[in-house]
Amino acid sequence: MGRRARRFALILLLILAILSFPLLHAQGDEGLIAELKLFSRAIGAVWEAYPGNVSPRELLYQAVKGMLSSLDKYSEFIDPQRYQLLQISMKGEYAGIGIILKMVGPKIAISAVEPGKPGEKAGLLVDDIILKIDGISMENKTIPDVASLLRGDADTPVVITILREPLHQILDIKIQRKKIEIQAIQDAHMIGKSLAYMRIAAWQENTTDQMDKILKDLKKKGMKALIIDLRNNDGGLMTQAVSLAERFLPKGKKIVSVQSKIEEQRKDYFSSFGKGATKLPLVILVNQKTASASEVFSGALQDHHRATIVGVKTFGKGSVQSIIPLDEVSGMKLTTAKYVTPMEKVIDGVGLTPDRIVENGPAGTPGEDRQILEATALLKKYM
Q1: 317 classed as catalytic
Q2: Which of 75, 97, 206, 285 could link 68 by a cystine bridge, Cβ 3.0 to 4.6 Å?
Q3: Are residues 13 and 102 in the same domain?
Q4: Quick one: what percent of the chain has pLDDT higher than 70?
């Protein structure tokens, strides 16, 4: 195939890919074809005249990256490495060995070994330095690079070469990867006779399932009131925030309204939980990093006077990003909707104002957590 023929084929494929995108069809924009001609002229000139080697896929990636960056601060191109991590974050599970990594100078070491996971069972220890994975040197690798190599399909082996100080032992350890569920709900425990505390760290596919199990366990321990900590939780799957709100709201109560050009997304969500919502007295802790799905959950319970919100004004991210695959390894995050609370409070750019405004000192400041103290004071009869 000649150079001009290859150029024409490339441009045709790019145009067909863009035209096949369903959101653009939905808009019925007659001017789209004319604008694609300009795009084809630009990409054709690069392909034909640029003296260096160019990749058609990389040209498309860069074009999408630039286009999305012009929209808002949340729309963005997701490269293959981040796309894999995003899928893990949303799904809430991965196949790996259950360790957490850290940098030690130029090298990568183990900062934590999860109890009961394959890494612990194989004998990995905190501060082991990772030299090789399956014979590949980890010199000059980043933490995401190493983490990616440690992940794989469930029940497949990986061989890790580690340096163990201070004995200066070099060991090859073979480990079978296993499916590992990420804990969206962390640090759930009783802090009084009948008062429980939990921190929700992420809104992922298994958040509500984990909550159901933890609530059942805490009730067995005598829980009659609950503190939910959403501080520093920057969001995730809105559908999980809706699902969890149903656990605390009576049937028929509005949870959130989603405003979108896309008919499938434009919707009012109401509680439909058939098993009966819990009537536990509830305090929710928020701060300036509480955002997105966390604001949906908090806003719904605040509007219905179902919970007392304690902390400082939240981040104010009232928009919904859809993850749209571009190919098998990359995608884009596109803002496709906005949401408002049941009482039609606009969150985007505004945030939620707590019922009780309580500020903590800067991170690392010695002293008590004043927001926790306020929460326990509100529920003191359960202490």
Answers
A1: yes
A2: 75
A3: no
A4: 86
